[in-house]
Amino acid sequence: MMVGLFHLIAEETAKTAGNTGMTLSAWVMMILSIALILGGLVVTVRIAFKPKKEPEDTK
Hints:
Oligomer: single chain
Distance between the termini: 37 Å
Number of strands: 0
Number of domains: 1
Mean pLDDT: 74
Radius of gyration: 17 Å
């Protein structure tokens, strides 16, 4: 579902780029969507592996 949302954002960004010659707002939207994807992955990985790396937290 999240992937579909980002595909939709990418398609809208591409349409905007085609119509206006890649405006600043289109670049910002594209960069934000990429940042959201990468940020979500990093947070997920950190949460998933944190208990294994830091057994002290269970005390």
